[in-house]
Amino acid sequence: MGRAPCCDKANVKKGPWSPEEDSKLKAYIEQNGTGGNWIALPQRIGLKRCGKSCRLRWLNYLRPNIKHGGFSEEEDNIICSLYVSIGSRWSIIAAQLPGRTDNDIKNYWNTRLKKKLLGKQRKQQEAQAHKANNNTMIKQELTERHTDNNLVLMNQTANPPLSTLYQTTCASSSIQEPYDVNNLRNPLYECDPFFFPQDQLFPVINDCSTSKNVFEGFQVQNLLPSNNDLMSQMGCNVNTTLQKDGFQSYSGGGVMESSSTGTTSTESSSWADLSFFLNYSPDNMVSKYQEIMMPQEYVNAFQEPSFFGCNNISSVHDMV
DNA sequence: AAATACGTCAACCGCGATCTT
DNA sequence: AAAGATCGCGGTTGACGTATT
């Protein structure tokens, strides 16, 4: 047989707590602890409340060092980063923010932070749509340039579509194996399809959490000839230097743009696009992104077997 | 000034996991 | 082993305050 019912549902008080109830509960727990049994607690104290209600009141309001409101930018960033990597697991997120409760963070996200991000997402989508026509033409030109350089198209068609599988014959290339550039997906898509559409790489999170270019200091050995105009038209914020070996090297390379206020915002693009334009393995870009943007504990959570339903998402191939 | 819309957040509800009998 | 209580969590609700019409 099981236990007796926890409380008489008809005889417990609901709704807001009075100051008297608060002080009774607080005084008792501070002196005696919870005793590991919330259900028995209200009876011991003489409160006409359900044990669950007492637990909630203590955890969310009465326990020491609770902070309410006034979230700092750093806290915003942590919440956003964790939401991106683990979703709405508020208790885990709260554990990273001393003094904050899961309830507070959940409320804050639902009422403010989400809207803040949505506004930015909308702006980015408008800007992206504006560039769509240009991009099509530039992609075509870059396809031809790749063909002219070291890329060997697997199906050997004269004018291949971007979806064609391709591989490089150049030993210095970071691309290790053929991959389908158009079938790569945003690794955050499963996390929140609404915020991170499948065809986008850079999550909006970059925008709010940091102005750091995700590819800052990321030297890309680009096999394309110097082509600053094309790169800047694509919104790639690149600095180029001529290497000793004669190749043009691009540092930076994240898809960035400067706003009129002088701050930097991140535009959405895709792994496939960046990989294609920078001639860099998408696998390496994923790990570089994680290394720069995500603290190790978040990466670990990101790579939990259960997260995307696969064992390790450090490889883009696992996500497609 | 009154009515309505909107934003916030404490508290409740229900569910799955775990524990106790 | 099974039944049912308890815990902990995330989603949702509704009261309340503020802004707008």
TrEMBL record:
User: Transcription as a keyword?
Assistant: yes
The compartments listed are:
Nucleus
Q: Note the superkingdom of the native organism.
A: Eukaryota
Keywords linked to the UniProt accession? DNA-binding, Nucleus, Repeat, Transcription, Transcription regulation
- GO-annotated cellular components: nucleus
**Entry's transmembrane regions:** none
Keyword check for Nucleus? yes
All copies of domain Myb-like, residue ranges: 9-62, 63-113
MF terms per GO, please? DNA binding
Taken from the record, one Pfam family name reads Myb_DNA-binding
| Location of the HTH myb-type domain | 9-62, 63-117
Q: Which InterPro entries match?
A: Homeodomain-like_sf, Myb_dom, SANT/Myb
Protein name, per record: Uncharacterized protein
Q: Which organism is it from?
A: Acacia crassicarpa (northern wattle)
